[in-house]
C-alpha cells in the first residue's frame, strides 16, 4: 500500500512539475519573449540616424511659387509666417533676406504700392514741410522722385509715403530691424559692431531724435553732392548711442560709441527712419 502511495505521490509531483514547466514556457513565449524582441527592435531603431523634418520648407516653397507668379504680397505673407513659427528652419535667414529686399525695393521705387500717394507742390512749400505733413523723410522724397536737390516748383508732382517704422536692435542676433506699424519685419540690417558708453544699459528704449549729416558743425543739404559722401548718424534721445557706419580710420573708430552698420545700410536707414520713431535695444 505504501508503495502505491509513493508512486501516486511521484506521479502527482511530476504532473505539478510538468504544469509549472508548461506555464513558464507559455509565459516566456507569449509575454516575455515578445516584449524582449520589441525592446531589441526599439533599441535598433534608436541607433538609426534621426531624420530632421523642416516644417517651414512647405511655406518657403509656396512663397517662391507665388513670387514666380508675380504675387509678391502673398509670398511675403508666407515668409512672415515661416519666420514667426519656424525660426529653426534652414530657410529662416533666406526668408528674412527676401522679405527685406522685396519690401525695400518696392518702397524705394516709383511703382505704386500700398501707402504711396502723389502730392502736388503748392506755392510756399518746402521739402521739409512736405515730409512733416506726410510723415515721411526728405531723403525718401528725393530718392523716390529722382531729384538732385531741394528746389521745388508749384505744380510739381511728388510721390510720398508715410514711414511708420520702429527700430529693434538685437545685440545677440547682431541685427538692426525695421518693423512696420503691424510689428512685422520690414527689413533686417547687419549689426557689424557696437560699443556702449560707460553706464549705458544693454537693453533700453528710446526715441529717434534725427539725422545728423557730417560732423554736425554746419548744414549739408540732403540731395547735394556733398551729402552723398558725408558721414551720417541717426541719433536717439539717449546720448552716445547713434546708428552709424565706421569711418575706417582707426584713431576715430576706436573711441566711437553706438551701433555700427555698413555704409550702404546707413544710407538706406537714413532714408527710412524719421524723427519720433521708437527705438528698442535688446541684449
What does this structure look like?
The protein starts with a helix and ends with a strand. With 283 residues, the protein is α+β, with helices and mostly antiparallel strands. Helix 2 runs antiparallel to helix 3 and helix 3 runs antiparallel to helix 4. A hairpin with a 5-residue loop joins strand 4 and strand 5. The chain has 9 helices and 11 strands. It folds into 3 domains: 52 residues, no CATH class; 49 residues, Membrane-bound Lytic Murein Transglycosylase D, Chain A, CATH 3.10.350; 117 residues, Beta Barrel (L,D-transpeptidase catalytic domain-like). The model has no long low-confidence stretch (mean pLDDT 86).
Could you list some keywords that capture this structure?
3 domains; 43% helix; 283 residues; elongated; L,D-transpeptidase catalytic domain-like; Membrane-bound Lytic Murein Transglycosylase D, Chain A; nine-stranded mixed sheet; alpha+beta; single chain; 9 helices; 11 strands
Detail the topology: elements first, then pairings.
Layout: H1 2-47, H2 57-68, H3 72-85, H4 92-107, E1 117-120, H5 127-133, H6 138-144, E2 157-160, E3 166-170, E4 175-179, E5 185-190, E6 193-195, E7 204-213, H7 225-229, E8 232-236, E9 243-245, H8 250-253, E10 258-261, H9 263-272, E11 278-282
Parallel strand pairs: 3-11, 9-10
Antiparallel strand pairs: 1-2, 3-4, 4-5, 6-10, 7-8, 7-11, 8-9
Helix pairs in contact: 2-3, 3-4
Amino acid at each position: 500500500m505504501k508503495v502505491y502511495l509513493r508512486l501516486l505521490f511521484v506521479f502527482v509531483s511530476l504532473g505539478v512539475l510538468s504544469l509549472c514547466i508548461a506555464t513558464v514556457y507559455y509565459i516566456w513565449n507569449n509575454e516575455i519573449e515578445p516584449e524582449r524582441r520589441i525592446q531589441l527592435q526599439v533599441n535598433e531603431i534608436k541607433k538609426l540616424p534621426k531624420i530632421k523634418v523642416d516644417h517651414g520648407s512647405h511655406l518657403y516653397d509656396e512663397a517662391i511659387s507665388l513670387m514666380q507668379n508675380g504675387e509678391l504680397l502673398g509670398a511675403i505673407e508666407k515668409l512672415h509666417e515661416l519666420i514667426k513659427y519656424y525660426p529653426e528652419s534652414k530657410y529662416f535667414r533666406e526668408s528674412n533676406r527676401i522679405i527685406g529686399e522685396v519690401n525695400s525695393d518696392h518702397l524705394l521705387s516709383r511703382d505704386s504700392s500700398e501707402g504711396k500717394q502723389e502730392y502736388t507742390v503748392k506755392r510756399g512749400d518746402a521739402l521739409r514741410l512736405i515730409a512733416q505733413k506726410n510723415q515721411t523723410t526728405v531723403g525718401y522724397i528725393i530718392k523716390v522722385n529722382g531729384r538732385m536737390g531741394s528746389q521745388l516748383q508749384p505744380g510739381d508732382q511728388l510721390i510720398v509715403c508715410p514711414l511708420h517704422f520702429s527700430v529693434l536692435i538685437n545685440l545677440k542676433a547682431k541685427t538692426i530691424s525695421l518693423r512696420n506699424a503691424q510689428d512685422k519685419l520690414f527689413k533686417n540690417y547687419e549689426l557689424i559692431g557696437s560699443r556702449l558708453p560707460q553706464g549705458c544699459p544693454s537693453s533700453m528704449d528710446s526715441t529717434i531724435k534725427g539725422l545728423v549729416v557730417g560732423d554736425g558743425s554746419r548744414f549739408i543739404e540732403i540731395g547735394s553732392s556733398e551729402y552723398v559722401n558725408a558721414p551720417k548718424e541717426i541719433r536717439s534721445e539717449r546720448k552716445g548711442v547713434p546708428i552709424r557706419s565706421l569711418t575706417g580710420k582707426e584713431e576715430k573708430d576706436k573711441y566711437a560709441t553706438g551701433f555700427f552698420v555698413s555704409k550702404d545700410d546707413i544710407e538706406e536707414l537714413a532714408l527710412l527712419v524719421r524723427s519720433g520713431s521708437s527705438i528698442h535695444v535688446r541684449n
